[in-house]
Amino acid sequence: xxxxxxxxxxxxxxxxxxxxxxxxxxxxxxxxxxxxxxxxxxxxxxxxxxxxxxxxxxxxxxxxxxxxxxxxxxxxxxxxxxxxxxxxxxxxxxxxxxxxxxxxxxxxxxxxxxxxxxxxxxxxxxxxxxxxxxxxxxxxxxxxxxxxxxxxxxxxxxxxxxxxxxxxxxxxxxxxxxxxxxxxxxxxxxxxxxxxxxxxxxxxxxxxxxxxxxxxxxxxxxxxxxxxxxxxxxxxxxxxxxxxxxxxxxxxxxxxxxxxxxxxxxxxxxxxxxxxxxxxxxxxxxxxxxxxxxxxxxxxxxxxxxxxxxxxxxxxxxxxxxxxxxxxxxxxxxxxxxxxxxxxxxxxxxxxxxxxxxxxxxxxxxxxxxxxxxxxxxxxxxxxxxxxxxxxxxxxxxxxxxxxxxxxxxxxxxxxxxxxxxxxxxxxxxxxxxxxxxxxxxxxxxxxxxxxxxxxxxxxxxxxxxxxxxx
Length: 471
Fold this sequence. Notes:
The protein is of the alpha/beta class. The chain has helices at residues 17-24, 76-83, 128-133, 138-148, 150-154, 169-178, 221-233, 261-273, 285-294, 307-316, 325-333, 341-363, 458-470, and strands at residues 43-50, 59-67, 70-74, 100-103, 108-111, 113-115, 157-162, 186-189, 193-195, 210-212, 215-217, 239-242, 244-245, 256-257, 278-282, 298-301, 320-321, 401-404, 421-426, 429-431. The chain is built from 13 helices and 20 strands.
């Protein structure tokens, strides 16, 4: 255990320095995330059962002292330090001001959740058509994303990565959170995802060149270098590569690799030269293998691996965020949500075909992160951040905590139930969980409108006329 923070989990401590620093650390050059929090009174959380995220057994009747934006001490020392307000702690500044107290007796106290795969700026589209053609305003997108980001805090999520965004909304939203203009979790962001002309998962909706939605098409090595450098200059914490994609005439193959390993290496080397990590969408063996060998810092999905891909991931010890929540929601609840049977089967099979290899990667020591892909109608923001079973904890943000009233040790599903959340502390401040859940009406043109649900054939019209005549 570190002096003033909880111990870093063994698996997460193996993250590369670039990955660990960029996942949730404040962007260089802006006010640090703790700015302004020193005005908050020290907070003592007493009596709860603490799960520290390290894999150690829960410890009952614990106390945690939070000062500003960091955890100063845990255990009996926390109570002693809080009782001697104004007295300096070893290696730390003095604790000043009255101490606020939270009685967590009979409750669980655990680090806030990290969601390593969100899409807050997408505004929950139900189709690629909506995502790419029904988000015409950067200003409105930013305003609505700022409204939605509060939902993560209300769900106990105190840190997240939004790897690719519409327009440049991610950097603006992150900056607004850091200066206190918007209430939200710690945020790390990418810019627009880099795609080759083959595209990603939207087929011919992606143009041959230029920008559409979150997708920036790159056509040459020079284009890759220029785009990476531009995104970093404009504030991206991460560079996102969409390495696998679907070819419309080859849907039965599933996603295939649409980048060469030399192209991936060029993007990685360019980003790393500017001290910026790279995250990649990879959903087949070739793309996962090449991304791992090329030095990508975080793999999203890494599904459908073969032995060669698994070996490359283990050799590189590159962190993986499987993001199976999206697939699981479709497989289990897709029919009720109106998804097609074909789509449901595709995602059900992806989980089934990938679970063994992902487990083998985990058993070999590969760091695993939790991601929900929140930002679509099948994964609305604030609803599913705790679903993946091995949810990581928010260690980089030491004072981010939440209390939970039910069975956190034996049934992790309670993390996905806001009714069990008693309090959330983010960046040294308590989150008001009594505020109404943010809701809104669709804006004009946000959803795909249909003239009719079915073709109005003459036969259909005659049948309607017959029913009317019989009444």
